[in-house]
Amino acid sequence: MASLTQRTSGLVQRRTEAIRSAAADKERESGGEEDEARRGEEEDDDKGDSKETRLTLMEEVLLLGLKDREGYTSFWNDCISSGLRGCMLVELALRGRLQLEVCGVRRKSLLSRKVICKSDAPTGDVLLDEALKHIKETQPPETVQSWIELLSGETWNPLKLHYQLRNVRERLAKNLVEKGVLTTEKQNFLLFDMTTHPLTNSTIKQRLVKKVQESVLEKWVNDPHRMDKRVLALILLAHSSDVLENAFAPLQDDQYDLGMKRVHTLLELEPEKESTKPNANELMWAVVAAFTK
């Protein structure tokens, strides 16, 4: 009887040890996986794109339009103001804050559908939050085309002038100063002094330019819906803001011709048709339609 009890006790002890050993092995494996995932995240943070992804679409478009040494956009560019407002709408849509109203049985065109606030959660960006507040509080809702005009201050209705976002380029430039991309200087233009923001971190702008170039050259996929939505939006909105040419200026002639040919392929797409495809962002295509109509 005693020997039976000893054998039973020994069996239970071995099972307990086996369970503990298996649990320890599993814990080591999970710990190894966590360490590997953590290392992967750290490697991602070390990649060149880590800083670039912290820029909003508005900041990227402005950065493409700024002259590196002079620190200001071209005086002849009259498209960038409305282009930056379009960037805000797309940025808010990509962040899940805005969407177009749902269509009924009879499908409306993109430009006739109203912009709806999907979420009013703060974005952490003052300009975006200001635009989001306007859109949320406006009843009845407005269309994409109307919001681009209202946020730009291009309205004859004095009761709607309060929608205008003022000093957008200056505020975006200050954001880039805080992020260590630009600096602030005073420059004299004979009759007046102007605050300028020359480039200080050329690496970030080079990465941005390279991203735009590669998207239509080495990484061209010949299908807008297989492209990263932010990159696609950046190309289309940079063109609408008349700053895309700056990204292609350093290219050789053959690369330039190929890149511009592919950009025109994107510009010739029909927003109405593209917005109906799976995973398409309708509001982004509505903004494109507003600029290409």
TrEMBL record:
<protein>
    <recommendedName>
        <fullName>Golgi phosphoprotein 3</fullName>
    </recommendedName>
</protein>
<dbReference type="InterPro" id="IPR038261">
    <property type="entry name" value="GPP34-like_sf"/>
</dbReference>
<keyword id="KW-0446">Lipid-binding</keyword>
<dbReference type="GO" id="GO:0007030">
    <property type="term" value="P:Golgi organization"/>
</dbReference>
<feature type="compositionally biased region" description="Polar residues">
    <location>
        <begin position="1"/>
        <end position="11"/>
    </location>
</feature>
<dbReference type="GO" id="GO:0000139">
    <property type="term" value="C:Golgi membrane"/>
</dbReference>
<dbReference type="GO" id="GO:0005802">
    <property type="term" value="C:trans-Golgi network"/>
</dbReference>
<comment type="similarity">
    <text>Belongs to the GOLPH3/VPS74 family.</text>
</comment>
<dbReference type="Pfam" id="PF05719">
    <property type="entry name" value="GPP34"/>
</dbReference>
<dbReference type="GO" id="GO:0005829">
    <property type="term" value="C:cytosol"/>
</dbReference>
<keyword id="KW-0472">Membrane</keyword>
<dbReference type="GO" id="GO:0032580">
    <property type="term" value="C:Golgi cisterna membrane"/>
</dbReference>
<dbReference type="GO" id="GO:0070273">
    <property type="term" value="F:phosphatidylinositol-4-phosphate binding"/>
</dbReference>
<dbReference type="GO" id="GO:0006890">
    <property type="term" value="P:retrograde vesicle-mediated transport, Golgi to endoplasmic reticulum"/>
</dbReference>
<keyword id="KW-0333">Golgi apparatus</keyword>
<feature type="compositionally biased region" description="Basic and acidic residues">
    <location>
        <begin position="14"/>
        <end position="41"/>
    </location>
</feature>
<dbReference type="GO" id="GO:0043001">
    <property type="term" value="P:Golgi to plasma membrane protein transport"/>
</dbReference>
<dbReference type="GO" id="GO:0048194">
    <property type="term" value="P:Golgi vesicle budding"/>
</dbReference>
<dbReference type="InterPro" id="IPR008628">
    <property type="entry name" value="GPP34-like"/>
</dbReference>
<feature type="region of interest" description="Disordered">
    <location>
        <begin position="1"/>
        <end position="52"/>
    </location>
</feature>
